[in-house]
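Long-time lurker. I teach an intro course on protein structure, and each term I like to show students one example going from raw sequence to a predicted 3D structure in token notation. This year I'd like something fresh instead of my usual example. Would anyone be willing to generate the tokens for the chain below so I can use it in lecture? Attribution to the forum is fine with me.
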Amino acid sequence: MEIWKEVYKGIIPKGYYNVKITNSEKTGLVVELEGEKSIVIIDFGYSRAMRMFDEGIVQNGVYSNDELKKYKDNKFENIIYKVENGEFNQEVSKMSFGFTDMIDVKHYILITQNFNIDIITDWEPKLEVRAK
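-- Reply from a regular --
Happy to contribute to a lecture. Here you go:
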């Protein structure tokens, strides 16, 4: 059963954010959220896998309906969730013949107004919030 946990609760200011993603061997995966009053930088380091969907086409049937209901009422104001037993992590495990199970990866989901972003990484992300 998929379980979501809010992480970094209350650190990311409420608001509408544009998403910019960069990924390279040098910097790893960095997600930048730019809002009217603040910029949030989430550094995931070296990541094993990522997928990104337009928010309008993906939520039902991909994620646990029970978990979606828990956070949908407050419009996913936390933005970042750590997922246990998530569908995407299971999919990556199958594709890697169980390799990701042996290295204890972490699964995060970012939910913004326009995107759902799943990230499989070895690390806890570093979060930085700057006033604009």
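Some talking points for your students: The first strand starts at residue 3 and ends at 6. Residues 89 and 95 are 10 Å apart (CA to CA).
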